[in-house]
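Technical note accompanying the year-one report. For the benefit of new consortium partners, we illustrate the data format agreed upon in the data management plan: each record pairs a sequence with a structure-token string. No post-processing was applied to the example shown here.
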Amino acid sequence: MARRLWPLPAIAALLVVAVLVVVAMRTCRSRPQPIVSPAASFSAAGVPVESPDLAVEVVEVRGDLHQGYMDWVCLVRCQDPGGCRADVRATVFYRSGGAGERMTLSGPIEVPVGARARLSSVQRPPHRVDSIEKVAVRVVRRFAAGDPVPTPEY
């Protein structure tokens, strides 16, 4: 009597499929990504400033982390003897995970010499800030004392 051998090819086929699935899963795995710290609130003082158009110093650059966004603030102190009256754009150059990044904050400032002004912006999604390299301040336009404060250009 001859025995039927039909289960052997079915078992062999299942083993081949199982081996192919295991091999495919191993080759499809991506390399492990480096662990990246999540964004966090930060504060930096004594940041170098590049401001050829307006005499200001950076008092502080701060980021306050909220749910889904980072609220950036740059406090500058006017050093111009006549006061600071201008619509300005400040670009914050910073490092995040080893890469160079930038954030732009803008708005009008109208303060006397020695007074502080606040520039701010929101970043979505928030980025981690490892260090602040510098702040570049540029005047978009100037206005005279008593003129209406212009609407910020973004």
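Partners are asked to follow this layout when depositing records. The longest helix spans residues 7-28.
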